[in-house]
Amino acid sequence: MRVHVRSIGVLAPGLPGWEAAQPVVRGERALEMAPLTPPVPRCLPAAERRRSSPTARLAIAVAEQAIDASAIPAAEMEMVFAAAEAAGEITHQLCEVLATTREISPTVFHNSVHNAPLGYLSIAMGAKLSGTSVCRGRWSFANGLVCAALQAQAAQRPVLFVCYDSPMPMPLQAVCAMVDPTAVAMVLAPDRIDAVASASLEIVQADVENEWPAWIPASWHANPSARGLAALGAFASPHGTVRVPFAPGQALEIRC
Amino acid sequence: MARRAAYLHGTDRRAMKPLAVTAFTTTNPAGIGNAATLAALREGRTGLVPNTLDWAPIACWVGQVPGAARIALPEALRDYDCANTRLALLALEQDGFRDAVARAVQRVGAHRVGVFLGTTTSGIRSTEIAYAHRNPDGSLPADFRYDTCHNMDATTELVRRFLGVSGPSLTISTACSSSAKVFAAAERYLRAGLVDAAVVGGVDTLCQTTLYGFNALQLVSEDVCRPYDAARKGLTIGEAGGFALLEDSEAALQLLGYGETCDAHHMSTPHPEGAGARLAMIGALEAASLDANAIDYVNLHGTASPANDLAEGRAVHDLFGDRVPCSSTKGVTGHTLGAAGITEAVISLLALEAGFRPGSPTTRSVDEATRCRFEPTGAEAKLQRVMSNSFGFGGNNCALVFGRAS
């Protein structure tokens, strides 16, 4: 299976975009951790910006980077959004209210669905093709990428792939240790034209889980999308190769 | 510009090779397994009851699966124990489904079988209970397991382990289209040769999140749901689990096509003319290389929410006119949310197999404004091809076409 990457978006502490991220993911410059300014997607009207969750705004902002850099209108793309958690802050709000007054706000409820970020982006950009929101736990990056690559191949269209994680609030953080926001987006194309990277994807047996590159802070290890950031080194280097965990005992080998 | 035009007008909607549906099963409020479900459909019997849940005292009806709560998970999989996984295991034991998967594993190998499940809330009921029992310092109870219960992928991983399969797998969570879209995703994995057999399905269980959430949106009816009724007042939430086995082989029943779209209109309200729904149905027909005339019955999404039924009915009428009989089976099963797609896919397969077109027993007087040919009364009918619609929050649409092998 091959994947052609037309453009890349990155958001994480110290990584405000793909330009800035390239020397870091290649190991040429150290990551300078700085809190990520809460992203404000341009495409969202003011009311939707207020209504959407911080997780949705993170996913949409990183998607916006990749869409802009691809020079393809979002309306011509299919979409695959991958995340381990829908939105921790919303789960927390919901469960707190359910444990007390049970008076849920309708907005909090519709923000709680796993596909809320995808829905907001689709509405803001008039994207009416297939939109799929997927989860595969801590293997969400590799499995989301495969799902998106298959879609680009099957539909012969560009596919927007986004993988994102936002911090879990307490007390959920104690059982799901996401503390930093990290997100990666790619526009995958069905052909090599104007590709920034082309890679083969292969599922391989891996008895030991792949180690993290040294530049990825330990505080990101709970974020499945950080596996995407770890893989970007391969996309940014000629003949780069990387393995990311795919399933128990399996890895996805990405070979550029 | 030339390149862009190719994406818009090129041969991107290639016809799909039909896939064999070699096994299927549904467990829902109207029946545990296919035979009980078909009997309820034939008798026009609803599985819905007035709500007596002490943890969600809302004036409404609900659809519960009796017995699911008593299922015990195997010792090695106890970490996954929650309402969703118990219902998943109950559903897997029906209609010889587990054995059918075991035979597929023998044929193609465990690593060539994938699991593709849809859900909206996974085991969130466990998190709700944990929040109701927080420790004085605000922390959650020590026995609360998040990854193996609440995570959207928990049931998928449990099913993989229980069935002993290790092929590429995925959880899709696009609200109420989730377990319809798994057919589309699985078809792409099969087509690309990543798996030789795909277990598709979905599970959702009753929880406070959806009962109070839909109630807050004023979408829950106090009365039983009455799809396409002129006096419909909203939906009845149900729980269900169901599975189908897809293979590139020969079988009497087939997946012929699917179409997936987004409304790009509103987070919780469908496009008023059902524009996205219409495009999903057209996509499914194109993938199946069929004209609308070839469809013998449409199992509607038909939640009984005033806006959904109006939008869907108009879109269906626009494509199928007055010719194709339609009904919604949500008055029988309830709206099982992330499990609605698989529940109604299996009902469509049962309809094809049994030669019975389901009705909508709770509908009393059809709303003329919905326009399509809604048939509240079920009937024996020779069916060759059936469409099943599933639409969800975020304007997420999926239409599936199933047929008898010719």
Automatic annotation (TrEMBL), chain A:
Which SUPFAM superfamilies has this protein been placed in? Thiolase-like
Question: Entry's InterPro entries?
Answer: Ketoacyl_synth_N (IPR014030), Thiolase-like (IPR016039)
Q: Which positions fall inside the Beta-ketoacyl synthase-like N-terminal domain? A: 37-193
Q: What's a single GO MF annotation on this record?
A: acyltransferase activity
What's the protein name?
Beta-ketoacyl synthase-like N-terminal domain-containing protein
